[in-house]
């Protein structure tokens, strides 16, 4: 049997969930939508108002007593999200409604560990000063992490970056609870809450195609949580046996052929030009650059088709900076994927939003800590 407290907790969560999906709601609508009694709705909403989690606004009415509309506070209990990625740094402040209050991106100018940490600290400090209602910091990190200890174990993209205790460092410096998430997991959360094509979906994958290739899985309607230190490594599946050397220690990994960095490196090796010239060369119709992209497209098609064949997911959603740099590539990846499948597949493409992983990191924390906020746990 549920105790009174458990019952109240359950009802409060019901009310919070209904409010999270709506701009604003009256008490009467809340009662209808939650199936709770008028008395329960009144007493719980009074408590939420008192804690500042909810605010009330008078509704304009022609006569009689104006009804109040309730909204989750847009300015209190904010979360700061930071995506640390070799393609750039992204900082967002997200409110309880899951909306972005402030957003800033910084280029990755220096990937040396100490310099990078300095940039992260300075920008974090600046945003905390501008938003005094931030209650937590959420880091979205590429590479290998330990979810339990909050340590970024390694990434092949930053110099000297090994076993960096990000959570400990941030908590010590800013005295705010800090969480560390793997970036594809954050991207999955972002899309599950923002992409109507994924509504009601239970099984699928989100693949991030940037300098690296990351992947997260939705299983039975929830983010599939792998072990503390493991994750889905589509980028390190073998695309070419005994192929190009990968920073992970193996040879022939997909990432060395089909990630942005992999393609830049192939271009540098074959043309003798600087790696950063790859994109420009492509835009100017350079044959070699086009061949490299075509090779990447073919290999991505095979990898994604294999993923469909292995797991029969309801969808695979592709996202990342690859599409910002080569907008036409999705069509080609889709064609290549279908060439390697006999059945139909639901391959989706997200319009690229640089700050999506940082927002997703906040959304994970909002979902996981709602009860703590609501009940001062
Ligand atoms: Zn590898």
In words, what does this structure look like?
This protein is α/β, with parallel strands linked by helices. The protein has three domains: 4-72, Arc Repressor Mutant, subunit A (Orthogonal Bundle), CATH 1.10.10; 78-186 and 356-375, Nucleotidyltransferase, domain 5 (2-Layer Sandwich); 199-349, ATPase, nucleotide binding domain (Nucleotidyltransferase, domain 5). 43% of the residues lie in helices and 21% in strands. The chain has 13 helices and 16 strands. The protein has helices spanning 4-20, 27-34, 38-51, 113-130, 166-174, 183-194, 255-258, 260-271, 277-283, 287-311, 321-325, 329-339, 356-375; strands at 25-26, 54-58, 68-72, 78-85, 88-94, 100-106, 134-141, 144-146, 151-154, 162-164, 178-182, 204-209, 213-219, 222-223, 315-319, 347-349. A five-stranded mixed sheet has the order 6-5-4-7-11, sandwiched between helices. A hairpin with a 7-residue loop joins strand 9 (151-154) and strand 10. The radius of gyration is 23 Å and the shape is globular. The protein starts with a helix and ends with a helix. The structure holds zinc ion. Zinc ion (ZN) is lined by residues 236, 246, 248, 250, 253, 255.
């Amino acid at each position: 049997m549920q105790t009174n407290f458990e019952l109240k907790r359950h009802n409060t969560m019901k009310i919070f969930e209904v409010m999270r999906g709506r701009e604003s709601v009256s008490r009467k609508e809340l009662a209808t939508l939650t199936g709770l009694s008028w008395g329960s709705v009144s007493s719980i909403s009074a408590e939420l108002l008192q804690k500042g989690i909810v605010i009330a606004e008078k509704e304009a009415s022609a006569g009689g007593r104006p009804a109040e509309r309730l909204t989750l506070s847009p300015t209190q209990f904010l979360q700061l999200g930071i995506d640390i990625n070799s393609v750039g740094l992204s900082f967002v402040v997200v409110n309880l409604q899951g909306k972005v209050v402030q957003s800033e991106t910084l280029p990755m100018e220096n990937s040396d560990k100490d310099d990078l940490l300095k940039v992260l600290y300075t920008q974090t400090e600046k945003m905390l000063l501008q938003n005094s209602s931030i209650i937590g910091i959420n880091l979205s990190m590429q590479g290998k992490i330990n979810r339990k200890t909050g340590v970024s174990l390694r990434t092949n993209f930053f110099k000297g970056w090994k076993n960096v205790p990000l959570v400990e460092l941030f908590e010590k410096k800013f005295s705010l609870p800090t969480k560390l998430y793997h970036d594809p997991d954050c991207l999955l959360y972002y899309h599950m809450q923002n992409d109507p094509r994924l509504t009601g979906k239970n099984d699928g994958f989100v693949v991030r195609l940037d300098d690296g290739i990351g992947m997260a899985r939705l299983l039975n309607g929830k983010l599939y949580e792998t072990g503390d230190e493991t994750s889905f490594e589509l980028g390190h599946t073998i695309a070419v046996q005994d192929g190009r050397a990968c920073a992970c220690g193996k040879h022939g990994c997909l990432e060395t052929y089909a990630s942005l960095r992999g393609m830049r490196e192939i271009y540098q090796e074959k043309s003798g030009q600087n790696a950063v010239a790859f994109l420009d060369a492509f835009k100017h119709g350079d044959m070699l650059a086009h061949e490299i992209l075509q090779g990447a497209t073919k290999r991505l098609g095979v990898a994604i088709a294999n993923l469909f064949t292995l797991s029969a997911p309801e969808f695979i959603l592709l996202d990342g900076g690859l599409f910002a740099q080569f907008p036409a590539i999705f069509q080609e990846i889709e064609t290549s994927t279908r060439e390697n499948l006999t059945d139909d597949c639901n391959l989706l493409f997200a319009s690229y939003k640089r700050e999506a992983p940082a927002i997703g990191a906040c959304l994970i924390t909002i979902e996981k800590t709602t009860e703590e906020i609501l009940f001062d746990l």
